[in-house]
Every structure is written in structure tokens, then in C-alpha cells.
């Protein structure tokens, strides 16, 4: 990995963290102590959508399947990051995990 690729990965990870923090804040404001169950419902819907997503613009069904699988993994990883943030906040508030 080149130095520039490392920088790009670091920037991408920083953006992922920021987005997860913003979404966690939103879920806490909207759903309160029920934020984890709301997140789980949205995660399941997003994973289903990722599995169904096709990328015909890639011009190759194998690449389209790979992109769909990678999207599914990425969505699941980001939801996991958000879940960890929510669990930490709820634990500090003394609310049980769902």
C-alpha cells in the first residue's frame, strides 16, 4: 500500500466514524432507549437492499455480485460501529442493552 493509499484509507475511516457518530446521535434523539432496536430494523432493511442491489453499469455479472457482497459487508460493518457507540451511551446512562 502506498503512502497516498494509506492517507485515503485513513480519511475514509474518519468519515465512516463521523457518519456513525451522527447516526447514533440521530437514533438516540429519535428513539431514545429504543435506539438499538430501531438500528437493528434499519440494518436488516439495508442488508436486504444490499443483497438485492445489482450494478449493471459494471458490465459483468460476477463484478456486480462482488460489488453487492462488498456493499453488504460494508453496511453491516458500519451498523456494527454505530451499535457499539449506542451501547456505550446507553450503558453510561444506565439503560440495559437490547
Summarize the structure.
By secondary structure, this protein is mainly α. The chain contains 3 helices and no strands.
Keywords:
flat; 81% helix; mainly alpha; 98 residues
Structure description:
This protein is mainly alpha-helical and 98 residues long. It has one domain. Helices cover 81% and strands 0% of the residues. The protein contains three helices and no strands. The chain has helices at residues 3-31, 35-52, 61-92. The protein starts with a helix and ends in a 6-residue tail after the last helix.
What amount of the residues lies in strands? Answer: under 5%
Discrete helix count? 3
The counted number of beta strands is: 0
Structural class: mainly alpha
Radius of gyration: 16 Å
Number of domains: 1
Largest sheet: none
Mean pLDDT equals: 94
How are the secondary structure elements laid out?
Layout: H1 3-31, H2 35-52, H3 61-92
Helix pairs in contact: 1-2, 1-3, 2-3
Amino acid at each position: 500500500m502506498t503512502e497516498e493509499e494509506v492517507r485515503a484509507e485513513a480519511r475514509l475511516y474518519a468519515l465512516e466514524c463521523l457518519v456513525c457518530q451522527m447516526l447514533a446521535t440521530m437514533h438516540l434523539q429519535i428513539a431514545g432507549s429504543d435506539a438499538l432496536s430501531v438500528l437493528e430494523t434499519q440494518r436488516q432493511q439495508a442488508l436486504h437492499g444490499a443483497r438485492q442491489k445489482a450494478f449493471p453499469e459494471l458490465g459483468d455479472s460476477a463484478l456486480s455480485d462482488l460489488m453487492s457482497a462488498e456493499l453488504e459487508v460494508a453496511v453491516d460493518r458500519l451498523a456494527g460501529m454505530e451499535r457499539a457507540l449506542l451501547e456505550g451511551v446507553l450503558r453510561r446512562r444506565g439503560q440495559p442493552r437490547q
